[in-house]
Each structure stands twice: as structure tokens, then as C-alpha cells.
Amino acid sequence: MKLSIVKFFCLTALLLVSSNLFSQTKKITETFENASKKGRYPSGEVTTTNGTWTFNEALVWDKEPTDYRPMAPRVLSAPTIDDEAGSISTNFEIKDIKHIKVGFIGYKTDPGYFQIEVLLSKDKGQTWESVGTARGKYDKSQETFAQFKVNSKKDEELRVKIKNASAPKLNKLNRINITLVEIECNK
């Protein structure tokens, strides 16, 4: 009886170790709570614990009472369908991306739907390819968390962009806060 229990624990330990060897992933998590501040919308760089990001038509500030929380990047929608929407994008490459999770919320006072689009670049930000879009909760009372599957090749280095793909507004007031960016990669 004692030998069977020992065998069971040894097999269980072996299975746990071998499953960890085959499924090792790492997560890059960014909440921007420790980012450098950027108080204006024109394009500029923001430094975080993970690297430098480009904020275009986006800001991050610690004293904005209308934001969902301090230091949640505020990103503007496009003023018309022909204009570029606000975005935040990595200035660094990330290898072997498997999934990207984004937390976001719209402003209750802004009309219409709100949504994000996640894009990837294989050429250091020269061109971008969409991974998909996700709409936020209609009542804008709580965060939406959207997950995107990425089929990157082994050792492929990608940049990530999150764009405000909400309905365009002529007054540019369809804003969103980004609350979380979580990138899961192979180790």
C-alpha cells in the first residue's frame, strides 16, 4: 500500500515537471500605472517598466478625474472615417506571441459604441496587420476584457498596437481608457 502511494506521488511529480517543461510561457503585463506621464494628445513616447511606447492621439496622466483610474491611457477615436484613430504601440519587439489580452472602458458621457482594434507589425512598425476588434460593454459601467489569439512563428518578433476603433465623432470625444495590456509569449 505504501509503495503504491509513493509511486503515485512520484508519477504526479513527474507529470507536473514535464508539463511545465512543454508549456512554459511568460506574460508581459502593462497597466501603465508606473509609466511616464504624457499630458497632451499629439504623438509622443511614454516609458513603462516594459519599454517605450508611442502614444498617438493618446495621453496618460495621474490627475484626470474623468478617467476610469489614474494612469489609464486615454485614447481618442478618429474624427472622421478617413482619419487615423488614436493608438498606443510598442517601440520594442516581442518574440513568440501567443495571446494578447486588453482591458478597456469607454466614457459614459461619450455617445455611441466603443471598441478597440489590435494590430501587429513584423517590420518594426512600418506596416500593421489587424488581429481583430472587440466592442465594449454598451452601458460603459465596467471594463471589457478582450482576448486575441496570435499565430506568430517561432522566434518571430512583433510590435503591438492598440487602436481606438470606436465610432468616429467630429468632436473627437469618443474616448476610451486602456486599463490592461497582457501579452502571453513562449519562453
Keywords:
187 residues, mainly beta, 7-stranded antiparallel β-sheet, 1 helix
Task: Give the distance, in angstroms, between the N- and C-terminal Cα atoms.
Answer: 40 Å
Mean pLDDT: 88
> What structural category do the secondary elements indicate?
mainly beta
Order of helices and strands: HEEEEEEEEEEEEE
Estimated radius of gyration = 20 Å
Q: List unreliable stretches of 5+ residues.
A: 10-21
Determine the oligomeric state from the structure: single chain
- What is the 3D shape? globular
Number of helices: 1
Beta-strand content bin? 35-45%
Number of strands: 13
Largest sheet: 7 strands, antiparallel
> Percent helix among the residues?
10-25%
Descriptive notes:
There is one protein chain. By secondary structure, the protein is mostly beta strands. The protein is built from one helix and 13 strands. The protein has one helix at 2-22, and strands at 25-30, 44-48, 51-56, 58-59, 74-76, 87-90, 94-95, 97-106, 115-121, 129-135, 144-149, 157-164, 175-186. The strands form two sheets. Strands 2, 3, 6, 7, 9, 10 and 12 form a seven-stranded antiparallel sheet that branches. Strands 1, 4, 5, 8, 11 and 13 form a six-stranded antiparallel sheet that branches. Strand 2 and strand 3 (51-56) form a beta hairpin. The longest helix has 21 residues, at 2-22. The chain is globular. The N and C termini lie far apart (40 Å). Residues 10-21 have low confidence and may be disordered.
